[in-house]
């Protein structure tokens, strides 16, 4: 299958079309051309193109009208506008309406090659985003556990292997890696799936409350116990009990839990008669259990009982290829009636470059935040939290980044990021920001309007 981009040139001047075709051919790209906008639109509608290079000024349907119609027909289409010096203002307007970039006349072969290389990469990433959305719409056998990375595939294999046994399972991994989702997936594939799956975070409850919550209590067991109450162990009989943060429990509690695992017996708080129960226990921790045993913070006998089948969940930073799929999953989850339905490729790259100390849970919060910031139909890098903008500013300031973009484009990217950072450092006070930047206040305001920086909204959010 041919993976080279399909390019269409649109200009009423045949010499311009042939000149561009020759430049593209030398760079290894094949292309078609047409001399009017109506024919270009018809071709895009009939056969898929990845990139369109169109003049702005043409008789009949001009470039601006064509751009609007092309975006309706194929929203992911990458459009580059050709413009003369007198129509630079129109080119900027075209970019605001969805054009990827503009090519000023007269252009050199090198200028064409640089812009096109970036456009081809952008088109490739757009295609990947479309594929990701389609994958999300397909049936997912593991529910809300999202990803195709080898590390996650190994987790899926383990889930499939152990699900239909009654073995106790230990899940390990950093906070936010999705341990409860994995526990639920195991339960849903087990013979116990018709019974309850009950989760309990052991670290969120004081010891006395934890014991009563898990084992239940008899009437009069303690002050306030006016009636007997079943605990989660009884409620989960025949099903699965998920105990998160198991290392945060006390040694006496661990002794009682060990008895449940070994004998299938427990006693309610304040009772002297053991009760039998048939449950599966899945425990989880974000700590090193061996280290906890060595430091006498966790009982060795319970550790050996739990570690028989252990599944480790990889941190998000070790599976960056899963980040776009996850980002679109959370976009669909939180979008509601908001306009944003896509994520800009540069924003995706920024997400993939981040280390994610909070893992998938942190990514979920970032996408939810970005959705509330986005104004159009696309989440851009400036909609992400400040730490991503700072990292992007550092990237843009690098020598490699300057070399990869035309001067005008690189200058605009830097200006927007620089001004946004200065405003944030000045608590969104324009006068203070203009002093720091050593700019006239009026000039700074013009830049703020040009780049659509939302000063008033940021002030209100303080």
Explain what you see.
This protein is of the alpha/beta class and 462 residues long. Helix content is 50%, strand content 13%. It has 21 helices and 16 strands. Strands 2-1-3-4-5 form a 5-stranded parallel β-sheet, sandwiched between helices. Strands 7-10-13-6-14 form a 5-stranded parallel β-sheet. Helix 13 (323-334) crosses helix 15, helix 16 runs antiparallel to helix 18 (407-425) and helix 18 crosses helix 19 (430-437). The radius of gyration is 30 Å and the shape is elongated. The protein starts with 6 loop residues before the first strand and ends with a helix. The relative contact order is 0.07.
Q: Figure out the total of helices.
A: 21
Give the neighbour order of strands across the main sheet: 2-1-3-4-5
- Under CATH, the topology of the largest domain can be stated as Rossmann fold
Structural class: alpha/beta
- Any idea how many domains? 3
Which CATH architecture of the largest domain is right?
3-Layer(aba) Sandwich
